[in-house]
Specification:
Number of strands: 55
Largest sheet: 6 strands, mixed
Shape: flat
Distance between the termini: 136 Å
CATH topology of the largest domain: Jelly Rolls
Number of helices: 9
Length: 813
């Protein structure tokens, strides 16, 4: 079977738009006639008139439908396979077949139908149709069936209606015909490929250049029809109109767009089968061209007046731009003062052309095809006469301060720009030694720093308008002055808080010295370099910080009404400050009064005698002697008068006075706390005057016995010491005459400390064995001359200060 039908893809558009035309293939009466057994690619949209009520055994009606009409020309079988464009199993298509040979107003019951839902039926695809392998003639709705029914046995001359409906989904579908029966063939376009149908014509109707003109469409009718009979030809604006055969175009026809596509319906008057073809209408708007840019000229004296906005234009010089590389022999170009004359091709103007509208005039250009002069294009060309920039004569005065008084010096020519241009913006200046060079823009002076070769000297200035390129010539007179100004000196101490040799000078402080004895009314400006002063560039602000540390020369330019009167040197000197330790503390020991201590001026890395001193005591020596606490100050000045103020805080200190010593003894952890008074700051050591010293006045874990406490003033005012006793009791003794722990005695008792202490020794049973003298060497472990055995023994001690201790110790043999 054949598999192509050209008109069918257009039915998507037809189905979408059918409501607009009041008809569409959603109804039987407007069925799409199927010709040529082609594969059908369609979409569905809407239902039109509901025509499936009680007309089928598949329990459904139209949702989104399209009607097809099939007429057979041979006997055989008729089947098809419908495939939705979407493979989603939820996409559901149904179909219904009516016939054979039933009218639309009495279609009867469907002889084939399928409304199976593929998702509900658990199918693995969403295809439907009629084929040879199925035996049922209807199935559905819902899960009933496999979506396919038995195909039809048909006879030549039979006509059937097939309704395709989509209850669920939104995609189009493809319908492929199967079986052996054949459909009617559509007519064809018999135009030869060598005879194109496209129509082309020049735009010869007013309004011109809109791309619209009339065409005789019927010239294509015999070409398309050829030798076919019983065929009718109609022309349509849209493919949809051609498909449903509405709104035929009449000839001659005026196009509505350029280019425009025209659709041709070729219909077999006997079978209703039709073919659609198309061709284009093209309106020739004339040759291709490049729109000319405005023709810009500067006003000139060629007509005797360079300020009237009129001059002569060589119009033909624009031809290459308009042709843009095209063959000039194939295109005619003419210029006209009016659009009408350009359209008519009359009254062309000659070149060179003298514009009749000053400053700016628009003319018209006719561009026509040499072989077909009716095909032409009209465009415009602006003739613009730009005015010349103002250029005024001026004079520059400069000082002869280059060290050679020869009347020659360097000028900054741009200093005259304001006077030459009158302050107009967008102006460029170039300078020449003669007018001819200025007119021809040759041999320009290099740069704007120019050294004159005569005094005075006349140079020529070419003033160019940066926006138009037009120029004028003026004269600049250079004159050298031989007057002079005074040098000056500004000095300052480096006292701004950052001793780096840099200082913010007030340059106006030099004005009086520079202008001394000079005429009144002169102007004064400062510059960092001589060349800046000479060229009057980069003037310095009034408050200027030198850029060269400690000493720098800048320049003062004196002007008389903007003319240089003289350039002088200004030396900026920054003096170093004294290198002084600004604030210190000193200590005076009150216990050494009336001894004196020395206070100094604090000079660093220099000899003190190089400076002068002013003490708060009234003295002026590098050092003073004092023996009183307080705050002393001294101003230290160098030879340049730069000074710094030094402050010395003399703080009091004193040797310590011990007011009490708290001793905790006779315990596991003996401790000592020293209580002192005095103006100093103190630290403490035990037994050694050289330390180590500690900040704390308390000592812990002190061994029983005799100790010395040292208290030192950290400011160096002296050390005091105190002897102390720490009472303690040995835990054991070994009377074996080896010289180590041979006797038991209370520690910390001697002639100075607790000499009247009472000591008793008992055995376990409380028997008194010995009363020890506190100043004796101690108990030897014997009782009535007999050694006592190894054991624990008890003691009772009553110190002279009244404290009572008791405890036990071990005798070991």
């Amino acid at each position: 079977m054949k598999t192509l039908l050209r008109f069918l893809p257009a039915l998507t558009i037809l189905c979408v738009n059918y409501i607009s035309y009041g008809q569409g293939p959603t109804d039987c009466i407007d069925s799409v006639i199927i010709c040529g057994n082609s594969t059908v690619n369609l979409d569905v949209n809407g239902v039109g008139v509901q025509e499936l009520n009680n007309s089928n055994t598949c329990g459904s009606s139209e949702h989104n439908s399209i009607w097809l009409q099939v007429s057979l020309v041979t006997d055989g079988t008729l089947g098809f396979t419908l495939r939705p464009n979407s493979s989603a199993i939820q996409e559901d298509y149904d179909f219904f077949v009516f016939g054979p040979n039933v009218p639309c107003n009495d279609i009867g019951q469907a002889i084939r139908c399928s409304t199976t839902n593929p998702a509900s039926a658990g199918l693995n695809n969403n295809y439907t149709g009629m084929n040879a392998s199925s035996s049922d003639v209807s199935e559905g709705p819902g899960p009933d069936g496999d979506s396919f029914v038995r195909w039809l046995d048909v006879m030549a001359g039979d006509t059937y209606f097939i309704v395709i409906d989509r209850p669920i989904g939104n995609s189009g579908f493809t319908l492929e015909w199967t079986g052996t029966a054949e459909f009617s063939a559509p007519p064809v376009n018999q135009a030869s490929p060598l005879t194109p149908l496209d129509l082309a014509k020049c735009d010869t109707e007013t309004p011109f250049e809109d791309g619209l003109t009339s065409f005789d469409l019927d010239v294509n009718t015999p070409i398309i029809m050829g030798t076919q009979t019983d065929v009718s030809i109609s022309y349509h604006l849209t493919e949809s109109d051609a498909n449903i055969n509405i709104n035929p175009l009449s000839s001659p026809y005026t196009n509505i767009s350029n280019p425009q596509e025209i659709f041709v319906r070729i219909t077999n008057d006997l079978t209703g089968c039709f073919e659609i073809t198309d061709f284009s209408l093209n309106v020739n708007l004339g040759p291709n061209y490049e729109p000319p840019t405005p023709f810009l000229l500067c006003d000139s004296t060629i007509d005797g007046n360079n300020n009237n906005g009129q001059t002569y234009f060589d119009l033909h010089s624009k031809n290459p731009e308009i042709l843009d590389g095209q063959d000039p022999s194939s295109i005619n170009i003419s210029y006209h003062e009016s659009k009408t004359s350009a359209e008519m091709g009359i009254n062309a103007i000659s070149s060179p052309y003298y514009n009749i509208v000053p400053n700016q005039q628009q003319i018209f250009v006719r561009i026509e095809d040499v072989l077909n002069t009716n095909c032409r294009t009209i465009t415009t060309l602006d003739l613009v006469v730009n005015r010349l920039p103002d250029a005024f004569d001026a004079t520059l005065f400069q000082c002869d301060e280059d060290g050679t008084f020869d009347g020659n010096t360097t000028f900054n020519l741009d200093q005259a720009k304001e006077a030459i241009t009158g302050g107009s913006p967008n102006r460029s200046l170039s300078y020449y030694l003669n007018r001819n060079d200025a007119e021809n823009n040759s041999n320009a002076v290099s740069g704007t720093a120019y050294t004159n070769i005569a005094n005075p000297q006349l140079i020529f200035v070419r003033v160019t308008d940066d926006l138009t390129g037009c120029f004028s010539i003026s004269q600049l007179n250079l004159e050298v002055s031989t007057t002079s100004a005074n040098n000056a000196l500004l000095e300052a101490c480096d006292n701004d808080g950052n001793e780096d040799g840099l200082y913010a000078f007030n340059l106006s402080d030099a004005n009086a010295a520079v202008l001394s004895s000079l005429p009144i009314g002169l102007d004064l400006f400062y510059y960092e370099t001589y060349m800046d002063a000479l060229l009057e560039v980069n003037p310095l602000p009034n408050i200027f910080t030198n850029t060269v540390p400690y000493s720098q020369t800048i320049y003062a330019r004196v002007e008389d009404s903007n003319a240089c009167y003289g350039i002088s040197e200004i030396v900026l000197t920054v003096f170093e400050m004294p290198n002084v330790e600004l604030e210190v503390n000193a200590i005076y020991c009150l216990n050494k009064f009336p001894d004196e201590i020395t206070l100094t001026g604090g000079i660093i890395d220099d000899h003190p005698n190089n400076y002068t001193y002013a003490w708060s005591t009234g003295e002026n020596t590098p050092e003073i002697m004092i023996n009183t606490q307080g705050t002393y100050s001294v101003r230290v000045s160098n030879a340049n008068g730069c000074f710094k103020d030094r402050t010395i805080n003399v703080l009091p200190s004193n040797i310590a006075t011990v007011t009490n010593i708290n001793i905790t003894d006779g315990a596991q952890n003996n401790s000592i706390t020293v209580i002192v008074s005095g103006e100093g700051e103190y630290e403490y050591a035990l037994n050694e005057s050289n330390g180590p010293y500690q900040n704390s006045a308390t000592f812990n874990n002190v061994a029983p016995g005799f100790h010395t406490i040292f208290v030192r003033d950290i400011n160096g005012c002296g050390i005091i010491q105190e002897d102390i006793s720490v009472i303690g009791f040995p835990k054991y003794f070994t009377p074996n005459n080896d010289g180590i722990n041979d006797r038991w005695q209370v520690h910390g008792v001697n002639e100075q400390f607790q000499p009247k202490t009472t000591i008793y020794i008992f055995d376990r049973m409380g028997k008194l064995l010995k009363e020890l003298h506190p100043l004796s060497s101690g108990w030897d472990g014997n009782y009535i001359g007999k050694p006592m055995p190894t054991d624990d023994y008890w003691f009772s001690v009553t110190l002279q200060d009244g404290r009572v201790f008791s405890g036990h110790f071990s005798l070991k043999r």
